[in-house]
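## retry 2 of 3
previous attempt timed out at serialization; input unchanged, resubmitting
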Amino acid sequence: MVSIDREHPEYRRRKAILRTYRDLYAGGEQIKANAHVYLTRRQKEPPDVYAERLSRVYYENYIGSIIDWYAATLFRREPHLSFEGDNEAGRAFFCEFTENCDRKQTALSDFFRRQFVEMLVTGAAYILVDFPRITRPATNRAEEDAMGASRAYLVDYRAEDLINWDFDDDGNFEWVVLRTSRQTQSRDGSAEGVIETRWLYYDKEHFQSYRATSTGLGQTAKPILVDEGRHGLAGLRQVPLFEMKVTEGLALMNKAALLQLEHFNKSNALAWALTMGLFAMPVVYSDREWNQIVGDSYYIQLGPGDRFGWTEPEGHVYQLAVENLNRLKDEIYRVCYLMPQAVDARTPQSGLSKQRDFTITNEVLRGYGDTVKDTMKRVLRAIEAARQDGLAIGVTGLDEFDIGDFSSELEDARRLLELGIQSPTLKKEVFKRLASKYLCDARQEVKDQIAREIEGSL
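## retry succeeded, writing output
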């Protein structure tokens, strides 16, 4: 049996890195609260000066905006889902599932949008397929449906939650251990509260759930087993945890994190230098002893040969710093495949030039779309196989990102049909895709009904 609280070496190595990635993505007060971790202290810098710099820290969050832009652009239109088969009850379940996939009224596309952001930040996102626990076994499928035991739902887990795992010879999970923590109020109402930690162990057939509590004083109870049994995908001999992972070349936070940290330190150093430059120090040139008090409410008396001035930097290093910050900003956009967004808006560009600049970005978006669609298909098909609905599930879309109106797509479809290709299947697929795009915000059951009517009429 696997030790429930043992951590994988890879997890221990990446734990601190993932904390940094989340701070860089969130920015704002979160990174300010942890600024002492990221703002480099100068050699022999006085503690009070460093403390003042920490109090004035700020963060220009380019990478967070880039990741959000990719998520918004990729999911500008919802993916098209198709559930084909004669099982009306199965289709009805999946139509309901697309509107509420996690028992929290979250639509399936919104759920995967959040997982996509998680993947870009940490490099991977994890989705657990679960079924409600029932107190007694069902005698048939109708009773199982009536009890709600067949109502599959999804649970999202962060990369930090997966603390241990192993793979089989085919590269699939052999077993996993998930750990989550949350703070709850103590039963006696004390202000300290209680931290509840939960461990979930899954292999290809069974699961085990452990819990332990700890107080703010550091007293931790021993984990105790609270539940165990067969999980929903036991019949498929499959661990019910699905990984949505991107290659290192497409892990945006991993590519831009060091650049963002360098920009953070340089921009704060420049801001501090400019602030100090506004409080110039007076300089008195005199051969006699100087003992006068200098301040806003005082005056000084100079001799015939004395001179008075102010220290003020010439500004050459400031100009170099500004140029370096601009270069770092452009490099952040470049490694994230968004170089056109870093170009100065005052630089004129033709429409064709802009289109060429975004060619690479579009290819990257299509790569992300393929990853999301592949994960969505694996999750939905596993649920269908566990429920034995006998449906063929397809996921398409997430491959058009240019901002344009529907009329241009309608015109392209019309030209394609005017070629006279003798294929009823082609005509059906064109009509179904047009209807799905035009009614992208409609309920899944409405889309399915339209698709069936198109299939039956052509």
